[in-house]
């Protein structure tokens, strides 16, 4: 039995609670992750607003919150496609369920965390990091372009600024 944080019923922040839930077991193509750090972002707020008004598709309560996490792979499901050498993993999950002690994810939705990457940073990468990469890819800026990032102090803004600077350094060294 593990603990989780989520919504106990319909309502606003007042229905959030810590509750016990059975430990999940990974199935075929899945991995069991012990969550070390969970990311907190706007998507969790959205879930509280939508699920709290009971617009969550009739799923039963309690509902676990959280969309991204970093942790350690504990067990692989039968014939999982996950690489057996992965021990630290960063993951995104939909529907939300990252504010837990352990979670099951499909193996392809996980990524290996490099040994020198701090787990709290890795926990922010699935949503903010991929959004930042997507923004820069869609902009298709030429080398030397100036980028103004409104909200650079937020998760996506900080990732955009760092990635843009890194891309500039790469282009100037080639």
List keywords for this structure.
8 strands, single chain, 26% strand, five-stranded antiparallel sheet, 174 residues, alpha+beta
Describe the structure in your own words.
By secondary structure, this protein is of the alpha+beta class. It has four helices and eight strands. The protein has a five-stranded antiparallel β-sheet with strand order 7-3-5-6-8. Strand 1 and strand 2 form a beta hairpin. Helix 3 crosses helix 4. The longest helix has 19 residues.
Q: SS-based structural class?
A: alpha+beta
Whole-number mean pLDDT = 82
Q: Strand arrangement, largest sheet? A: 7-3-5-6-8
Q: What's the end-to-end separation, in Å?
A: 53 Å
Residue share in β-strands: 25-35%
Report the helical percentage.
25-40%
User: How many extended strands?
Assistant: 8
- Order of SSEs: EEEHEEEEEHHH
How would the global form be characterised? globular
Radius of gyration: 18 Å
Unreliable runs: none
Largest sheet at a glance? 5 strands, antiparallel
| Number of helical segments with 4 or more residues | 4
């Amino acid at each position: 039995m593990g603990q989780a944080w989520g919504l106990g019923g319909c309502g606003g922040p007042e229905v959030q609670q810590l509750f016990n839930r059975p430990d999940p077991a990974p199935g075929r193509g899945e991995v069991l992750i012990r969550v070390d750090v969970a990311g907190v972002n706007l998507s969790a707020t959205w879930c509280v607003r939508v699920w709290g008004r009971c617009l969550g598709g009739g799923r039963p309560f309690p509902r676990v919150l959280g969309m991204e996490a970093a942790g350690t792979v504990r067990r692989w499901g039968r014939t999982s496609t996950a690489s057996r050498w992965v021990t630290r993993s960063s993951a995104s999950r939909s529907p939300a369920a990252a504010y837990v002690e352990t979670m099951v994810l499909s193996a392809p939705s996980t990524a290996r965390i490099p040994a020198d990457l701090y787990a709290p940073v890795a926990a922010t990468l699935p949503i903010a990091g991929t959004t930042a990469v997507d923004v820069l890819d869609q902009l298709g800026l030429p080398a030397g372009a100036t980028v103004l990032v409104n909200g650079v102090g937020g998760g996506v803004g900080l990732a955009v600024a760092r990635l843009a600077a890194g891309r500039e350094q790469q282009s100037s060294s080639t």
